[in-house]
Write a structure and sequence with these properties.
141 residues; 55% helix; 5 helices
Length: 141
């Protein structure tokens, strides 16, 4: 009997962006980092104030209102913003899995240098916690 083997190849490409392209990439990175931190703060505040758990799906439904409220996010593809919230959800679930095992610290936020720090206030989080960007529950009622 013949065994079939599949070989998966990986390729790496070096990017040489122009100055405007590099600036656009850094701006997108800044906006996704801000969204990640605001999403983390929204989850923390929602749990502390209302005892509610906010899911990635709940936060992703609010992206349309966020893009309307904050025009700088209009230039970022929706899938990029959704991915930032998916990464937050994965980190959050991992944190609580570690809590369950007894080996967890505090939830942390993304920073420019790649190191972690505790979440602090941001304009987006205050927008979310005020309920201005929340269309999912308020408009349905």
């Amino acid at each position: 009997m013949q065994e079939s083997t599949t070989q998966i190849r990986g390729y790496r490409f070096r990017l040489y962006p122009t100055n405007p392209q590099e600036a656009a990439m850094f701006e997108t990175l800044r906006l996704t980092r801000t969204l990640y931190n605001a999403g983390l703060e929204q989850r923390i505040v929602a749990y502390r104030k209302q005892g509610k758990t906010v899911t990635a799906y709940d936060q992703q439904k609010e992206l349309t209102a966020l893009k309307a409220e904050c025009p700088e996010y209009a230039g970022v593809y929706s899938h990029v913003l959704q991915d930032a919230l998916d990464r937050l959800d994965k980190a959050y679930k991992g944190f609580f899995a570690r809590v369950k095992r007894g080996s967890a610290g505090t939830a942390s936020s993304s920073s420019k240098s790649g190191t972690r720090r505790r979440a602090s206030g941001s304009a987006l989080a205050s927008l979310w916690t005020r309920g201005d960007a929340s269309t999912s529950r308020k408009s349905a009622q």
